[in-house]
Amino acid sequence: MISEKVTTVCPYCGVGCGLEVQPPASQGKATNRDSEGTPIWKVMGDRTHPSSLGKVCVKGATVTEAINKNRLKYPLYRETLQQDFRQIDWEEAFNLIVKQIQLVSKTIGVDGICMYGSGQFQTEDYYVAQKLLKGCLGTNNFDANSRLCMSSAVSGYMGSFGADGPPCNYEDLELTDCAFLVGTNTAECHPIVFNRLRAYHKKNRHVKMIVVDPRRTATAEAADLHLAIKPGTDIDLFNGIAYLLLQWGAIDTFFIDECTRDFPAYTQIISHYPPQIVADKCGIEVKDLETAARYWAESEKVLSLWSMGLNQSSEGTAKVRTLINLHLMTATIGKAGCGPFSLTGQPNAMGGREAGGLSHILPGYRSVKNPLHRQELEEIWQLPSGAISANVGKTVWEMIMGLENGDVGLLWIAATNPAVSMPDLERTKQALLKSPFTIYQDAYYPTETAYYAHLVLPATQWSEKAGTMTNSERVVTYSPAFSSSAPSQAKADWEIFAEVGKRLGFEKYFSFKDSAQVYQEFVKTTRDRPCDMSGLSHELLSKYGPIQWPFPLRSDPENRYGRRLYTDLHFHTEDGRAKFAAFHSRGLAEPPNPDYPLVLTVGRLYGHWHTMTRTGRIDKIVKMHPEPFLEIHPKDARKYQLEDGELVRVVSVRGEAKFKVKITSAIAPSTVFAPMHWGFLWAENAEANSLTHPHSCPISKQPELKACAVNLIKVNQIPTEIKQETKGKGELTIIN
Ligand SMILES: Nc1nc2c(c(=O)[nH]1)N[C@H]1C(S)=C(S)[C@@H](COP(=O)(O)OP(=O)(O)OC[C@H]3O[C@@H](n4cnc5c(=O)[nH]c(N)nc54)[C@H](O)[C@@H]3O)O[C@H]1N2
Ligand SMILES: Nc1nc2c(c(=O)[nH]1)N[C@H]1C(S)=C(S)[C@@H](COP(=O)(O)OP(=O)(O)OC[C@H]3O[C@@H](n4cnc5c(=O)[nH]c(N)nc54)[C@H](O)[C@@H]3O)O[C@H]1N2
Ligand code: SF4
Ligand SMILES: [Mo]
């Protein structure tokens, strides 16, 4: 264990704040301890980090408080899900994995092998997994929870600009004239981005802030204009703004002519979106629509920020591209203070994209479908020609369907908790029960997904393994191993993948001495690609601190921050022009109807992180958000005769859940909101995803987790009970 303070990156959200951590007992000072008396590292903001400038939110500040608790200590195994787990050693665990991979390859074929990973992997974990599955085994069945998160942003950028990659910097937050925040509760989910924007907005009265969200969130409270649109009407709104900009001549014809294509087809589409029609569809006033368009027209620099309100939609790609259209028609791209800026959810979803961590992409922003890309990678990996399959792999939902119909013989889940976070949870759980062999790799035990696993593997986590993460503004930060909290048998995710690779006979491909070597090989795959970071290494990042890409070989490390993409107005398309997209709105996949007249939207709270494996064990955060609830508008509460605090049954065609009613005008009428955080280990029957559906965007395959049709049924008042018997225990509970 290191005995001095270290700098690292926060392992929660995609803001990627720099942290400075001090050992539990600094000289002459009292030892910091968590609620159970275990010494903990003290966390502060790293003032030298360009992304966060010394700031942290409550999650970053408390992150070390849960790293010792409820850890998974050793591999566990059971032949069937009806049996109890027994402790095994790694030798047996590796033998079981190798045997199953060989069996499935022979019986179903390699496409019966699937891995479902996570934006909480370090880039090194992602990379070794790609090499194992896509390179050596020859199946592209690697998908990550980014499918539920960022894949619409990825396909939106690829469609409009010819490559993935958010083009902006956080400095743009303090250089813009107008911030257009759509489907993002930045104040709670990207707090340090929000703090920077908010401080600048307060100081500069000419700067406008527009928030588009069916809820009046903490983010919306700070806005000059809040458009509480009906869920799923974003495309109507964007096309409506475009209609007015065109009518007022507030467009940049020079930029449109020189740097874009397909504008005429787009103008055809937007002619169908006059203000009154748009206002009616969105459920807003014409004057508010006009104000939004006027802010766009009057601002030289518009920065749009978005997150799950756009991406998690059955028309997610169309939403993203239609938003980018506004930037193209006003030439608000490629310069300081403006551009379309997706706020990445997880700490390293960006690194995952760079390393090819979705079933349709390959390392270095390459596509599975592109023969040249496959060939380039086969050469880098020194694999025979044709080793990488030309078939796009299964998305995570397709893996679930594969379990249903017998196409999947092995599902390997790591650093994600799908038994809480997947849509249509009952169907997901039924499919998991049918799995012939599920491997689950996590740092904690128990979690909900462990209930559906045959083999459970203990992973080291942040602070215990060295690697890198890339944040939303393309800044790569080195995250060293500094604490000794890991159980002795836990291994880094990449080490587990590499060991399996070796045991399958691919020794020479996985002979990495450490994660620095893994990274060295990974960056080579980015050479001359849009995400070129071939000049980076663990050594350079440790020496100089965080570095932003692009950072090709021999770049100057003194000049490591402040780059934007597309400043030369040359895009990654065949002709170098950005593409307008002509999309009509289609609305929700499951609109409200007489039986299910309300729209349920599901999102996050400031303190909790997803399925609570860490934040559910931090007292301060549990006090902030003690229990799940359902937000409902006073009008709807009256209609259903509901009182504040009473328990209500929420039903959709797929399932049901129970929540305490929270009556508030912050939610739009006919819409209800529930947090996503509470799985079955943390509350009785309050899983929001029992209600949601898996209908996805046809291009990005991202499910519409943000909206489904529900009804409410009154029940007698029973307090929501947090299950004490499973909460907070980390011992080898026998689970069935
Ligand atoms: N505190 C906290 N922060 C986090 C996380 C966490 O778990 N906790 N998770 C991280 C991750 S992985 C992610 S992906 C991000 C998510 O960050 P956000 O996307 O900001 O968070 P959400 O609460 O999921 O959803 C944002 C908003 O979308 C709105 N919305 C719903 N439907 C629509 C619609 O049709 N149109 C529009 N315009 N808006 C709509 C919702 O009302 C909600 O307020 O947060 C990251 N940061
Ligand atoms: N209805 C609805 N559903 C949603 C969403 C929504 O907005 N609405 N959001 C979706 C989105 S955007 C996301 S990102 C997902 C998030 O959903 P999940 O990915 O399921 O959520 P987490 O709780 O972050 O799961 C991460 C797991 O990894 C473990 N872990 C942490 N570090 C490591 C490590 O280094 N190695 C290993 N092996 N394990 C580790 C943690 O203990 C935890 O169990 O949920 C999705 N589901
Ligand atoms: S804003 Fe995100 S990255 Fe920064 S401290 Fe909070 S959770 Fe961590
Ligand atoms: Mo996410």
TrEMBL record:
Q: SMART domains given for it?
A: Molybdop_Fe4S4
E.C. number: 1.7.7.2
Q: Which organism is it from?
A: Cyanobacterium aponinum (strain PCC 10605)
Q: Say which family it is in.
A: Belongs to the prokaryotic molybdopterin-containing oxidoreductase family. NasA/NapA/NarB subfamily.
Cofactor(s) required, per the database record: Mo-bis(molybdopterin guanine dinucleotide); [4Fe-4S] cluster
Cross-referenced InterPro entries, in alphabetical order?
Answer: Asp_de-COase-like_dom_sf (IPR009010), CT_Nitrate-R-NapA-like (IPR041957), MoPterin_dinucl-bd_dom (IPR006657), Mopterin_OxRdtase (IPR006656), Mopterin_OxRdtase_4Fe-4S_dom (IPR006963), Prok_molybdopt-oxidoreductase (IPR050123)
Protein's name according to its UniProt entry: Assimilatory nitrate reductase (Ferredoxin)
Q: Which SUPFAM superfamilies match?
A: ADC-like (SSF50692), Formate dehydrogenase/DMSO reductase, domains 1-3 (SSF53706)
The 4Fe-4S Mo/W bis-MGD-type domain extends over 3-71
Q: Which GO terms describe its biological process?
A: nitrate assimilation
Identify the GO cellular component terms for this protein: membrane
Lineage, broadest ranks: Bacteria, Bacillati, Cyanobacteriota, Cyanophyceae, Oscillatoriophycideae
Supply the PROSITE patterns for this chain. Answer: 4FE4S_MOW_BIS_MGD
Q: Which Gene3D superfamilies match?
A: 2.40.40.20, 3.40.50.740, ADC-like domains (2.20.25.90), Dimethylsulfoxide Reductase, domain 2 (3.40.228.10)
Q: Does the keyword Iron-sulfur apply?
A: yes
Question: What PANTHER family does the entry give?
Answer: NADPH-FE(3+) OXIDOREDUCTASE SUBUNIT ALPHA, RESPIRATORY NITRATE REDUCTASE
GO molecular-function term, one example from the UniProt record: molybdopterin cofactor binding
Keywords attached to this Swiss-Prot or TrEMBL record, sorted alphabetically, are: 4Fe-4S, Iron, Iron-sulfur, Metal-binding, Molybdenum, Nitrate assimilation, Oxidoreductase
